[in-house]
Every structure is written in C-alpha cells, then in structure tokens.
Amino acid sequence: MKQRDFKTADGMDPEIREFIETHRNDIDRLYDLPPAQRNRADEMLARLEELGRRCRDKREFDEQFYNRTMSHALYRMILDFSSYSR
How many domains does the chain have? Predict the structure, then answer.
C-alpha cells in the first residue's frame, strides 16, 4: 500500500482526523454530558489528537493506539457515559 504524503491543516493524516472526529461527533450526538464528563471527553480527544499529530499515518496511529492503555480508557469512558444517553 502506497503511503499518502498529505496531512490536514493541523498536521494530521486525514484518516486519523476522521477517526477522532467520528468519536467526537458520536459523543456529542449520543450523550448529554454534564460539565465534568464533557471535560473528560475533551481531554481524551485532545490526547488522541496529540497522538495523531505524532504518527505518520493511520497504520502507525492504530498500532500505537491499540498498544496503549489509551484504547481501553476511551472505550471505558464511552461505557461510563451510557448513563448520560440522550
């Protein structure tokens, strides 16, 4: 597979940006979060963005994301948000 050589304006691979924005949009659409939980979500999304900017492409991002506790923390957070479902 040929590696793409373009990035979004914020220096991130477009597939990584799409992954993060999908999670952001799902959280906004599915949950009515109180401020403390909204901050928790924003912090997690910021961590994903930081990782995304450091990675060359989605493949590297996936390898690092799934080999860290970050993937578990993201999915645990989403499970915790179930009590705030719209």
Answer: 1
Q: At what angle do helices 69-80 and 35-54 cross, to 10 degrees?
A: 150
Q: What is the pTM of this model?
A: 0.84
CA pair distance 74, 80, nearest whole angstrom? 10
Give, for 54, the enclosing helix (H) or strand (E): helix 35-54
What pLDDT score was predicted for residue 12? Answer: 93
| Euclidean distance between CA atoms 39 and 12, whole angstroms | 23
Host domain of residue 56: 35-86
With vertex at residue 43, the alpha carbon angle to CA 30 and CA 33, rounded to the nearest 5 degrees, is 30
Give residue for tokens 């900017």: 53
Segment 14-26, tens digit of pLDDT: 999 999 999 999 9
Domain contains 68: yes
Please choose, from the candidates 5, 7, 25, the residue with its C-alpha nearest in 3D space to the C-alpha of residue 16: 7
